[in-house]
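Closing statement on the D-xylitol-5-phosphate sub-project.
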Amino acid sequence: MKKVSPSLLACDFLHLSDEIKKVQLAGADWLHLDVMDGVFVPNISFGLPLVSAAKKVATCPLDVHLMIVKPEKYIQAFVKAGADIVTIHVESTNQVSQVVSEIKALGAKAGLSLRPSTPIQAIEPYLDQIDLVLVMTVEPGFGGQSFRQDQVEKIDWLYNQKTQRQLDLLIEVDGGINDQTVLMCKNADIFVAGTYIFKSDNPKLAMDKLRLI
Ligand code: DX5
Ligand code: ZN
C-alpha cells in the first residue's frame, strides 16, 4: 500500500494543531516537515520549535526534510524534537555516510534527497546504508511548483536497483504531486504533497486518490 505524507509547508501555520489533526483524521500516513535555512535553498521556512510543536499532536511519524547546510550540526536536535525520519540532501555535506550513521544510531530512519540537477548516481554509494530516498520533482525551496517529469527516471532507476539488489529501501517523491502527476510515479512508495492536500476541499479524497493509484 502506498503512503501519503502531507507537507505542512502548505498548511495554515496559525492553526497548526487543527491542520495536523485534519490531515491525520483524513488518513495521513506520515507528516512531512520542510526545514529551510535560506542558505541551502533561497527560502526560510521553520525549524526546531515547529517540529517540537507538531510532535505534541502528531499520531503519525514526523518525516523531516532538511534543506540546510551543515546538517551534521543539527541531527541530534531534530531527533530530540521528534523527527522519526530525517532526510538530508546529498549536496549539503561532505560527511554523508557519517550523518546517515548518526541518524540511525539515534533511532530514526535515514533518508537522502537530491536536487533535480544532481544525478541519481550521487546517491548510489549509500543505497545499502539508507532507509529512504526522497526524489525531488521540483527545485527545493518552495511549495506550489510544477512537477518535473524529467525526474521520473530517477524513481524508475531506484525501483530497479531496489528490486535487483533486494534493498530494504523506500522511494519517496516530493514536489508538484497531485492526482495527475502521481500517475507517473507508480514505482514510488510514499507521496509528499502540500498544495494538493491542504488546498483541497476534501483532503481525505485527495489523499485516497494518491494512495490508490
Ligand atoms: C519543496 C518541498 C516540498 C513542498 C511540496 O522544497 O520539499 O515538500 O512542500 O509542496 P507541493 O506539494 O505544493 O509541491
Ligand atoms: Zn519536502
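The chain has seven helices and eight strands. With this model delivered, the sub-project is considered complete and its resources will be redirected to Aim 3.
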